[in-house]
Amino acid sequence: MIADLDNRRHSFHVAIENWQHDFNIGAVVRNANAFLAAEVHIIGLRRWNRRGAMVTDRYQHIRHHPTVDDFLAWAYPEDLPVIGIDNLPGARRIETVTLPRRCVLLLGQEGPGLSEAARRACAELLSIAQYGSTRSINAGVASGIAMHSWIRAHAGPPPD
């Protein structure tokens, strides 16, 4: 099954910071599998709650990077722009841009969002429009919205 998926994977990656044992990583992995991301990158702690992945971690490539600098040492030579997804001041709305065909969508940890080191590494910062009273949406949900934005721009219809 992995070989079949590898033949069809898309050219975007997704990364998430994990400094406080984020419970949303399983949802990010599951979304990455659903949208056929090339790879998931976990920056920070190696441990994460696999329950939310619903076994999709068996079929999704996952790479660990101990620090943001380690992650960048991988991403820059691959010529992959890092696109931060966070509702920071000055971030452009994801709804108004076309994501690059080859890129890494970088999400911050639930609560604090992107670390300062991660923000500095981003070629661009994008936010997701929100209209209610909450400060932010769940990181797993944000990952799905960001990946779907890439899919809308670059992927055809899914196979039957």
Your description of this structure?
The protein has 160 residues and is an alpha/beta fold. The chain has a single domain, classed as SPOUT methyltransferase, trefoil knot domain (Alpha/beta knot), CATH 3.40.1280.10. 28% of the residues lie in helices and 19% in strands. The protein has helices at 2-6, 25-34, 68-75, 116-121, 139-154, and strands at 12-18, 40-44, 62-65, 82-85, 92-93, 103-107, 124-127. It has a seven-stranded parallel beta sheet with strand order 3-2-1-6-4-7-5, sandwiched between helices. β1 (12-18), α2 (25-34) and β2 form a beta-alpha-beta unit. α2 (25-34) runs parallel beside α5 (139-154). The two termini are 16 Å apart.
Mean pLDDT, rounded to whole units? 90
CATH topology: Alpha/beta knot
Q: Per CATH, which architecture?
A: 3-Layer(aba) Sandwich
* Gyration radius, rounded: 15 Å
Total beta strands: 7
> Which stretches are low in confidence, meaning pLDDT under 50 for 5 or more residues running?
none
Shape call: globular
> In order across it, which strands form the biggest sheet?
3-2-1-6-4-7-5
Helix count from the secondary structure assignment: 5
Structurally, the number of domains stands at 1
* CATH class descriptor name: Alpha Beta
Q: What multimeric state do the chains show?
A: single chain
- Helical amount: 25-40%
The run of helices and strands is: HEHEEHEEEHEH
